[in-house]
TrEMBL record:
Reactions it catalyzes: allantoate + H2O = (S)-ureidoglycolate + urea
Pathway given in the UniProt record: Nitrogen metabolism; (S)-allantoin degradation; (S)-ureidoglycolate from allantoate (aminidohydrolase route): step 1/1
UniProt name for this protein: Probable allantoicase
Residues covered by region (Disordered): 1-25
Lineage of origin: Bacteria, Bacillati, Actinomycetota, Actinomycetes, Streptosporangiales
Source organism per UniProt: Streptosporangium fragile
Length: 339
């Protein structure tokens, strides 16, 4: 567990890691439950002191001491009333991106005298758009067993399960407050919806993933394939300044083997730190790379769209930026080939 800095230091970064260590590899994977990726806390049995929606908000939890409302100290998290009867409290989360869960983070940030002593997480896979009531009879699987948690700390739990899940249920025993729930994993969408249609082959929500990157000094490269538009620079990918004469790059594993027909390279919000140019190459076997887009000039703070003509199917696309800088989004529109 990683203790939190002193009150008022909510902007101080905290290291990530499994219980008792300083690093957890699964946290590099997307947070499938994140609100900005489409997640939703669709139900909770109680939220008397702080709203359930806070659980999946982006960013580290904040805290302002001596900030009181009608229900007491305001917390950036989910907090229930003091339970006076048997049982436990729970919150039900619909994953914004269904997938295989690799690890869970339960963060009790700033909850020091009101955290739950134990917590667990269950998961289920449900088709369509079930209500909370309909999910009561679902087949739930315990992916994080009932475990001890402490106050004001992040708790990391690795998950070894290849099944695809659409919802998780966070249980705390018996009551209290949890600031954030992170559900990291690999996106596994239902691509049958796109049969006969085009799609963004790079999109995180369609199963795309950044599998290699030269530099992620300022922000995660997976940001460039996230849903929606970047609202500011931190929601894109930005590298450190290069001083060695080389260039930065990332590799995107596509949703499946497919043919790219249109590339969108968006430098929105990158005004003085956009790359000068971009190059795209593809591969279907990991050894032989073929050109998709020759080195092409980019402008700052601009969404660019380039037609790709006559390209063979690819499973991965490499995006080279010259020499360094940042991108807000990368979209690679095309068609799955089934290969």
């Amino acid at each position: 567990m990683t203790p939190r800095p002193a009150a008022g230091a909510s902007d101080v970064p905290r290291p990530s890691g499994p219980p008792g260590t300083a690093g957890a590899g699964f946290t590099a994977l997307p947070d499938l439950a994140l609100r900005t990726l489409g997640g939703s806390v669709i139900a909770a049995n109680d939220e008397s002191f702080a709203e359930r929606e806070n659980l999946i908000r982006p960013g580290r939890p904040g805290f302002r001491p001596h900030t009181f409302g009608a229900k007491g100290q305001v917390y950036d998290g989910w907090e229930t009333r003091r339970r006076r009867e048997p049982g436990h409290d729970w919150a039900l989360v619909r994953l914004g991106m269904p997938g295989a869960i690799r690890g869970v983070v339960i963060d009790t940030a700033w909850f020091t005298g009101n955290y739950p002593p134990h917590a667990s997480v269950e998961a289920t896979a449900a088709g369509g758009y079930p209500t909370a009531a309909e999910l009561e009879s679902a087949d739930w699987v315990e992916i994080v067993p009932r475990s001890a948690v402490t106050g004001d700390a992040e708790h990391f739990f690795e998950v070894a399960d290849e099944r695809r899940y659409t919802h998780v249920r966070l249980n705390m025993f018996p009551d209290g407050g949890i600031a954030r729930l992170r559900v990291h994993g690999e996106v596994r969408p239902d691509l049958s919806l796109y049969e006969g249609l085009g799609l963004d082959l790079a999109a995180l929500e369609n199963g795309g993933l950044v599998t290699g990157c030269s530099n992620e000094f300022y922000s995660s490269p997976n940001n460039v394939i996230a849903p929606g538009l970047a609202r500011h620079q931190a929601e894109g990918w930005e590298t450190a300044r290069r001083r060695d004469g080389g260039n930065d790059w990332l590799v995107i594993r596509l949703a499946g083997a497919g043919v790219v027909r249109l590339a969108e390279i968006d430098t929105t919000n990158l005004v003085f730190n956009a790359p000068a140019a971009v190059t795209l190459t593809g591969t279907a076997d990991g050894d032989t790379w073929f050109p998709l887009l020759p080195r092409t000039r980019l402008l700052p703070d601009t969404p660019h769209r380039f037609r790709i003509e006559g390209a063979p199917p690819a499973t991965h696309v490499r995006v080279d930026i010259h020499p360094d800088g940042g991108l807000a989004r990368v979209r690679l529109h095309g068609f799955l080939t089934g290969g």
